[in-house]
Write a structure and sequence with these properties.
The complex is a heterodimer.
Chain A lengths: L1 H26 L6 H9 L13 H9 L12 H12 L8 E5 L20 H4 L18 H5 L5 E4 L2 E4 L10 H4 L5 E5 L15 H6 L9 H5 L5 E4 L2 E4 L9 H5 L7
Antiparallel strand pairs in A: 1-4, 2-3, 5-6
Chain B lengths: L6 H11 L10 H6 L4 H30 L7 H23 L1 H7 L2 H5 L3 H12 L4 H30 L10 H15 L8
Helix pairs in contact in B: 1-8, 3-4, 3-7, 3-8, 4-5, 4-7, 7-8, 8-9
The chains are: A alpha+beta, B mainly alpha.
């Protein structure tokens, strides 16, 4: 008899809890936007944060509410965009991008200012006299960006990070970790890249690095469409004007333009 | 513990001398799992404190009026059942009425369903013969103690992140050693508050 009562007690408590929860979930349900759920399914679910939201859920909610552009999802790329635009019923296109490191210096091309022994991190090393590399604008080469990349698209080769353009999803996570701000997103179908970030002029630039931009302006003169300009002693390409003729590349005497 | 034990003594004991994590070794899973950043550690602690107090408020009457004295052996299973249901209910209510809190607690609230610290505090209230008010304050103190341990340990872990740890101790081993040292430091509180 006693065991029977014990069973009844547990069963009744379970029943009350179950019915209570069922009622609560029915009467206090929060309506979820149908669009939002569909968009969430169209996203790849990597939660990489490239869109600037907390994750795929947050981004889906923002897109459904019309607060965010639907072309912010880098890993989803074209597929996700076409699915989302189908859900939203609008026509959208995006240009695929890729991360790019504006420095060509490596162990052979730059000198060492001092011998660094410490935490192998670009951020830590850059605190001491702007890093051990002779060029104070250049890549330190300890690979903070390599560690940050969620897609293993960056590898260190000879003291310089190399981006594998096929693997790069243009999520932009490597951009803030570089203490020298060398990384930016450029169009995937780029023609010319400026592989230097040095804003100094003349002799010190030549002394510190074999492949630096000395702001000679030969590229500016060679360009017919006015797409390349030297600003702050550094060549800058305007990709919207660039025709990809390649005249600046052959004009550059120091191999900065590729 | 008798009925005259003051609230202050209960709070002091729950937070310092009988700390849920560092003295009783309950709730080690979130202690090691969610203490990487002070922010998430704080969210988790708030969720745990909330659930502890609400769970005590429900389980204590159930024990006193329903299970005692004949069916005390049902304590564990009934408490688990009730706590699981309460956590779900809290989640639904928060989602409906206080969306920002729901978003802030996020995944941590459902995780607490199976947290031994919550079950532990409700059962310890019974074994220590506390009355209803004492139980509520004990649950609050246990939650605050959990929060203290989490925040302290989150601080310790952020220091470990930047320390030069020997290769064989990297990751979980050094975390466990650090947890042991933090726990050891709480031994110093033994004796305070009688």
């Amino acid at each position: 008899m006693e065991i029977f009562i014990a069973v009844v007690i547990v069963a009744v408590i379970g029943l009350i809890a179950g019915v209570g929860l069922a009622l609560a979930s029915k009467y206090m349900a929060v309506p979820v936007d149908e669009k939002q759920e569909k968009i969430r399914e169209a996203l790849p679910g990597a939660n990489c944060g490239a869109c600037g939201y907390s994750g795929c859920d947050g981004y889906a909610a923002a897109v459904a509410a019309g607060e965010a552009e639907p072309n912010k999802c880098a890993p989803g790329g074209e597929t996700a965009l076409s699915l989302i635009s189908e859900i939203l019923g609008v026509e959208l296109t995006s240009e695929p991008k890729v991360a790019f490191i504006a420095c060509k210096g490596n162990c052979e091309k730059t000198l060492n200012k001092y011998s660094y022994e410490g935490l192998m991190s670009c951020t830590a090393a850059s605190q001491i006299y702007a890093g051990p590399v002779s060029c104070s604008y250049g890549c330190i080469g300890f690979g903070d960006c390599v560690k940050e990349c969620p897609f293993d698209a960056i590898t260190l080769e000879n003291g310089r990070p190399i981006i594998c353009e096929d693997k790069c999803m243009a999520c932009g996570k490597c951009i803030p970790v570089c203490p020298k701000s060398l990384i930016s997103l450029i169009p995937k179908k780029h023609s010319v890249t400026v592989n230097c970030s040095n804003k100094q002029k003349g002799a010190p630039v030549v002394k510190n690095c074999k492949v630096s931009c000395v702001a000679c302006k030969l590229c500016e003169k060679a360009c017919e469409s006015g797409a390349i300009k030297v600003e702050n002693n550094l060549a800058v390409v305007d990709y919207s004007l660039c025709t990809g003729c390649g005249k600046c590349v052959s004009a550059c005497k120091r191999g900065v333009l590729i | 513990m008798n009925n005259t034990t003051s609230i202050v003594a209960i709070l002091l004991a729950g937070i310092l001398t009988d700390n849920m994590v560092l003295s009783k070794f309950l709730g080690i899973c979130p202690f090691l799992g969610v203490s990487k950043k002070p922010g998430t550690a704080f969210s988790m602690s708030v969720a745990v404190t909330l659930v502890m107090v609400v769970a005590t408020a429900v389980t204590h009457p159930i024990y006193t009026y329903l299970l005692y004295p004949k069916y005390t052996y049902l304590e564990t299973i009934v408490f688990i059942l009730v706590i699981a249901a309460i956590v779900q209910l809290i989640e639904i209510v928060l989602k409906r009425f206080i969306k920002p809190v729901y978003n802030a607690l996020g995944i941590y609230l459902p995780l607490i369903t199976t947290n031994c610290a919550v079950l532990g505090v409700t059962m310890l209230n019974i074994t220590e013969n506390m009355n209803f008010v004492q139980s509520l304050f004990n649950a609050l103190a246990a939650g605050l103690g959990f929060m203290l341990a989490m925040l302290l340990f989150a601080g310790v872990r952020s220091k470990i992140e930047n320390a030069d740890v020997p290769e064989f101790l990297k990751g979980l081993p050094i975390t466990l050693i650090a947890a042991a040292l933090v726990s050891l430091s709480f031994l110093g509180f033994a004796g305070i508050g009688g």
